[in-house]
């Protein structure tokens, strides 16, 4: 993978991760780097799923693939927030 490909993957991952965070209700106390990691993983997995389903090869922008990626990012953010808990929120 070239340097341009890596930078593009990070930028796309950041966007997908941010969109995933917006979908999940409530406040998420996770760092931006973790959002980026979740976004990159969701983008890669979403592309694999879209290609397997046959919806990745369309003319123009692939809305179905993007929707799959954002949904996966939202699931990833929700899982991470659920596992790490909501730090900083008092339960008493």
TrEMBL record:
Species for this entry: Phytohabitans flavus
> Where is the protein found, in the record's own terms?
Cell membrane
Residue stretches spanning the membrane: 6-24, 31-54, 66-85
Q: Give start-end ranges for the coiled-coil region(s).
A: none
Q: Which GO terms describe its cellular component?
A: plasma membrane
Q: Which domain of life is it from?
A: Bacteria
User: Which of UniProt's keywords are assigned here?
Assistant: Cell membrane, Membrane, Transmembrane, Transmembrane helix
Question: What is the protein's name according to its record?
Answer: Transglycosylase
**Mode of membrane association:** Multi-pass membrane protein
The UniProt similarity line reads: Belongs to the UPF0410 family.
């Amino acid at each position: 993978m070239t340097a341009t490909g890596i930078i593009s993957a990070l930028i796309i991952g950041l966007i997908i991760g941010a969109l995933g965070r917006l979908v999940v209700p409530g406040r998420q106390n996770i760092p931006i780097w973790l959002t980026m990691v979740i976004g990159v993983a969701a983008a890669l997995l979403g592309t694999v799923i879209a290609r397997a389903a046959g919806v990745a090869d369309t003319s123009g922008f692939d809305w179905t693939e993007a929707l799959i990626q954002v949904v996966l990012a939202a699931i990833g953010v929700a899982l991470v927030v659920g596992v790490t808990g909501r730090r900083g929120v008092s339960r008493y």
